[in-house]
């Protein structure tokens, strides 16, 4: 990444050949191969940012903003995140977590529903060190000595959770979780593989473009745990759609065109 101006870029995020970062004068956006960048107006109060291949997410003290990554000057959605002391965003495939001083709010990022990201609820944890969402699981560091894993069910208010595992290890922050691997900092880099079977994403990630398009559920955990699994698909009215399920190797974006 060229940086001819020697500008400090914080919270650096790169996707789809573009980069976004937080500077003292606001949010910087530009081509990852280009010599310069633009500063988005009105973004000096942004606390943190995250991005995926389609969207840019800006965290402010009380709101979460969604913009198009390729057209970041326009705001697609702005919603209250419900977290006090918001300080960080943690992103994973089709999941976004807002981490605060005493809780974490979860959102899905596949699409906007009624002008907002779909909320998974708020998990309260006094003294929260860090947290991250991955697939159907929430990773929470309630103190500096452990990480707890919770199964998550969607909720519009308090997050519906059930604790299923713990990792006993020191943690100072920078927690990330893609549904398979936990990564964090504690006097250096640490990680732990999570051997739990759960869904971590749906392909295509936003919309079904054709009646005969392939649909896939990205999964984590031991392969044998999914041998008898079947994928049921319903339309907007809840009626089942015909189709067959089979276990296949990981697919690429080209498989869904």
Indicate the topology.
Elements: E1 10-15, E2 18-23, E3 26-31, E4 38-40, E5 48-51, E6 55-59, E7 63-68, E8 75-80, E9 88-92, E10 95-99, E11 103-113, E12 116-124, E13 130-134, E14 137-143, E15 146-153, E16 160-168, E17 173-177, E18 181-185, E19 189-193, E20 198-203, E21 216-220
Antiparallel strand pairs: 1-2, 2-3, 3-4, 5-6, 6-7, 7-8, 9-10, 10-11, 11-12, 13-14, 14-15, 15-16, 17-18, 18-19, 20-21
Walk me through what this model shows.
- With 257 residues, the chain is an all-beta fold.
- Helices cover 0% and strands 49% of the residues.
- It contains no helices and 21 strands.
- The chain has strands at 10-15, 18-23, 26-31, 38-40, 48-51, 55-59, 63-68, 75-80, 88-92, 95-99, 103-113, 116-124, 130-134, 137-143, 146-153, 160-168, 173-177, 181-185, 189-193, 198-203, 216-220.
- A four-stranded antiparallel beta sheet has the order 1-2-3-4, with no helix packed on it. It has a four-stranded antiparallel beta sheet with strand order 5-6-7-8, with no helix packed on it.
- It is globular and about 55 Å long.
- The two termini are 31 Å apart.
Task: Please supply descriptive tags for the structure shown above.
0% helix, mainly beta, four-stranded antiparallel β-sheet, single chain, 257 residues
Question: For the CA atoms, what is the radius of gyration?
Answer: 19 Å
What is the distance, rounded to the nearest whole angstrom, between the alpha carbons of the first and last residues?
A: 31 Å
Mean pLDDT: 90
Helix content percent band: under 10%
Q: Helices and strands, in N-to-C order?
A: EEEEEEEEEEEEEEEEEEEEE
Q: Give the helix tally.
A: 0
Spatial order of strands in the largest sheet: 1-2-3-4
Classify the secondary structure makeup into a structural class: mainly beta
The general outline is globular
Name the beta content range: over 45%
Poorly predicted runs of 5 or more residues? none
Number of strands: 21
**What does the main sheet amount to?**
4 strands, antiparallel
């Amino acid at each position: 990444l060229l940086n001819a101006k020697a500008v400090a870029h914080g919270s650096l995020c790169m996707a789809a050949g573009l980069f976004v970062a937080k500077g003292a004068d606001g949010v910087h956006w530009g081509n990852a191969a280009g010599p310069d960048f633009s500063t988005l107006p009105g973004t000096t109060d942004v606390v943190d940012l995250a991005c995926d291949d389609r969207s840019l997410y800006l965290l402010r003290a009380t709101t979460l903003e969604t913009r198009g990554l390729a057209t970041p000057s326009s705001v697609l959605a702005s919603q209250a995140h419900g977290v006090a002391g918001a300080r960080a965003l943690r992103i994973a495939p089709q999941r976004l977590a807002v981490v605060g001083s005493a809780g974490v709010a979860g959102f899905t990022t596949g699409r906007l529903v009624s002008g907002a990201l779909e909320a998974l609820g708020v998990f309260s944890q006094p003294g929260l060190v860090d947290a991250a969402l991955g697939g159907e699981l929430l990773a929470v560091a309630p103190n500096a000595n452990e990480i707890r894993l919770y199964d998550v069910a969607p909720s519009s208010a308090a997050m519906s959770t059930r604790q299923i595992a713990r990792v006993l290890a020191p943690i100072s922050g920078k927690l990330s979780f893609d549904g398979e691997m936990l990564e964090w900092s504690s006097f250096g880099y640490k990680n732990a593989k999570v051997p739990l079977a759960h869904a971590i994403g749906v392909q295509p990630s936003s919309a079904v473009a054709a009646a005969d398009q392939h649909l896939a559920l990205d999964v984590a955990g031991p392969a044998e745990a999914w041998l008898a699994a079947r994928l049921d698909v319903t339309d907007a009215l809840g009626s089942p759609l015909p189709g067959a399920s089979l276990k296949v190797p990981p697919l690429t974006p080209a498989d869904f065109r």
